[in-house]
Amino acid sequence: MSDLKLLTDRLIENKKAGVQDKIKKAEAENVKMQSESDDKLAEEKAKQVTLIDSRLARQFEQDKHTLQINKRDQILSEKQKVLRAAFNEAEKQMNQWTDSEFQQFLLLVLQQHKNSESIELVLGQNSVDKVSTDWINNTAKKVANIESSTEVISKKNGFILKKNGIQYNYLFDELIKDIKGQLVSSVSKKLFD
Question: Is the dihedral of CA 95, 96, 97, 99 positive or negative?
Answer without folding.
Answer: positive
